[in-house]
Specification:
By secondary structure, the protein is α/β, with parallel strands linked by helices.
């Protein structure tokens, strides 16, 4: 299965039916077992991609197949979603800003912001442009400090909460936040940090409420020399970060070495659909 099938279906599921049986009322909110849930109307997606040289196969697939197809799938989403937005960056948290250009030059997002909006008339082209990851503006040394996609996503999202920076305004209080971290090595936070540290930084973006987000970790479950996209190292820390979300039913880990992603896809669809169905209402 191609990576696009995984990514597009995952976010499609996030915006699927939020009404289940008698648990939801006609106004989009309802009660099930004494709990009140909101419906999933908005989604904020951050995709953080390891841009090291060993990721050539993965980056080619993202640029030529995954990102354009991802955009097309999202534009055709039905089931109650009002809109979505997507920010893309590499796995270097310095400076941790969303990319607005690829190797071919400026992507000129129609949103006029540092991220893509679902209303763009050229969304597929924007995805393809930014998917040609350009890391020339980063300040990482390339000594494994550029291979920390989850940490980079956390840095970018923290900047989004600031005023006067490129990422400002990206995170919406009433949106489900989906973070996708991709690497063929492992999460290597700089300075060194535990999986708990990375998890805490990510969840803090949504006020400490893990139920308002989903984390998708894509990396090697083991060392492999001939995986679906070439070689991959065992992503021990990325898997540990993902496991903390999994423990709260808000995470999924895919083995980059495995060409057959059906089982992981099924789990991801269930996880994100549940997150949307159980999105807590704003107080």
């Amino acid at each position: 299965m191609r990576l696009i099938a995984l990514l597009s279906a995952v976010v499609f599921a996030a915006c699927g039916p939020s009404v289940t049986g008698d648990d939801q009322a006609d106004d989009g909110e309802g009660e099930g077992d004494g709990e009140t849930f909101a419906s999933c109307k908005h989604i904020d997606v951050v995709i953080s991609v390891d841009n090291s040289g060993s990721m050539r196969e993965e980056k080619d697939a993202l640029r030529d197949i995954a990102f354009p197809g991802f955009a097309a799938a999202l534009k055709n989403v039905a089931g109650g979603l009002d809109d979505f937005r997507v920010g893309v960056l590499d796995a270097c948290p310095a400076p941790g800003t969303f990319h607005t250009r690829g190797l071919g030059g400026a992507c000129n997002f129609s949103s006029g912001t540092a991220w893509m909006e679902s209303t763009s008339p050229a969304l597929a082209d924007e995805f393809k442009c930014v998917g040609d990851i350009d890391s020339t503006g980063t300040m990482c040394a390339g000594n494994n400090d550029d291979e920390q996609p989850a940490s980079a996503a956390a840095s970018a999202l923290r900047l989004a909460a600031s005023v006067g920076v490129p990422n400002s305004g990206f995170v919406r209080d009433d949106a489900l936040l989906v973070v996708i971290a991709i690497t063929d090595e492992d999460e290597q936070p700089t300075p060194a940090g535990s999986a708990q540290d990375v998890y805490d930084r990510l969840v803090a973006i949504k006020g400490g409420d893990v139920n308002r987000m989903v984390f998708l970790g894509i990396g090697g479950a083991s060392d492999c020399a001939n995986g679906a996209y070439g070689s991959a190292d065992k992503a021990t820390k990325l898997k540990a970060v993902t496991d903390k979300f999994i423990a709260n039913q808000r995470g999924v880990f895919w083995d980059l070495c495995d060409g057959n992603l059906d089982q992981g896809l099924t789990q991801a669809l269930t996880t994100i659909e549940t997150a949307c169905e159980q999105l807590p209402p704003l107080l």
